Amino acid sequence: MHQHIKRIAQSEGQEATLKGWVANIRESKTNLFIVLRDGTGFVQCVVGLDAVGEEQFEAAKKLTLESSLALTGNVVKDDRQIGGYELQANNVHIYQIAKEYPIAKKTHGEHGVRFLADKRHLWLRSKRQWAIMRVRNEIIMGIHEFFQSRDFIQMDAPIFTGNACEGTTTLFSTDFFGEEAFLSQSGQLYGEAMAMAQGLIYTFGPTFRAEKSDTPRHLAEFWMIEPEMAFYDNEMNMDLIEQFMKHVINRVIKNCTVELEALDRDVEKLARVNQEFPRVPYTEAVKILRGEQEVNGRNAIAVQEEDLANAKKGIEEKTADIAEREVQIKAGMKKGARKFSEAKIVVLRKEIAEMEEQVRNIPKWIESAKSFEDGEDFGGSDETVLTRVFDAPVMVYNWPTKIKAFYMKEVEGDPHHVKGVDLLAPEGYGEIIGGSERETDIDVLLKKIKEHDLPMQEFEWYLDLRRFGSVPHSGFGLGLERIVRWCCDLDHLRETIPFPRRYGRLFP
RNA sequence: GCCUCCAUAGCUCAGCUGGUUAGAGCGGCGGACUGUUAAUCCGUAGGUCCAAGGUUCAAGUCCUUGUGGGGGCGCCA
Question: What ipTM describes this predicted complex?
Answer without folding.
Answer: 0.81
